[in-house]
Design a protein that fits this description.
This protein is mainly alpha-helical. The protein has eight helices and two strands. The relative contact order is 0.18.
Length: 217
């Protein structure tokens, strides 16, 4: 790998790791645009850049989510009962999401990512939080919700908080518990999504050296 690219990734990783620890986020929404810019600068194949950026971002969340969830767990904020109910659907959805992304061309996938970044930014800017109108659904409903969260997270290379937090607050989960529980969900999302990106990426012949499937090492 180009030494300048290694340095750039080290700086980027440090910055995102700091943000993850400070804000309790996985960092995917921050990583994808920067990785895309770096790979574009290094003349990666244009049709693969966004796929590689999303896959690589998702892989890093396995590490950033651990520090985040440990901090939340120490404060007793993680609702592990919710994690257990959402995790099965999330694992399946996070495997399927990258496969769906592989069916999209780079422009379509980039547009899909941009829409979700805009949506998430608008939520934060205007402090839009759905009011709790009902309790958590039953096992089937939680499985379906987990699947939807996993698919979307796998598509955009993020930890899923942009969907899971509003879902939980809508189900009358307190916001600090929703944020902490979302952090705990980041690891199964990243694990399944990373394995999926490796599996489906291994069949792509034009990936640059240093790649493991769609993940740029």
């Amino acid at each position: 790998m180009d030494p300048s690219l290694i340095i750039a990734f080290l700086v980027l990783g440090s910055a995102v790791g700091f943000a993850a620890g400070l804000l309790g986020i996985g960092g995917g929404m921050l990583l994808v645009p920067f990785i895309t810019a770096l790979l574009t600068y290094k003349d990666f194949p244009k049709e693969l850049i966004i796929h590689v950026a999303i896959a690589t971002s998702l892989a890093t969340i396995m590490f950033t989510s651990v520090s985040s969830v440990v901090a939340h767990h120490r404060r007793g904020a993680v609702r592990w009962d919710i994690v257990k109910l959402l995790a099965p659907g999330i694992l399946i959805g996070s495997w399927v999401g990258p496969w769906i992304g592989q069916q999209m061309n780079s422009a379509t996938l980039a547009m899909f990512f941009a829409v979700f970044v805009t949506f998430s930014a608008a939520q934060m800017l205007f402090d839009k939080k759905p009011s709790g109108t009902r309790g958590l659904p039953g096992n089937a409903g939680m499985f379906a919700a987990g699947g939807g969260i996993g698919v979307l997270a796998g598509l955009v290379g993020a930890g899923g908080g942009f969907v899971s937090v509003p879902f939980m607050t809508w189900c009358q989960v307190k916001i600090h518990n929703a944020v902490a529980t979302s952090a705990a969900l980041g690891f199964p999302i990243a694990l399944a999504g990373t394995l999926s990106n490796i599996y489906f990426g291994l069949s792509i012949p034009d990936l640059p050296s240093g790649s493991l499937g769609y993940i740029y090492l």
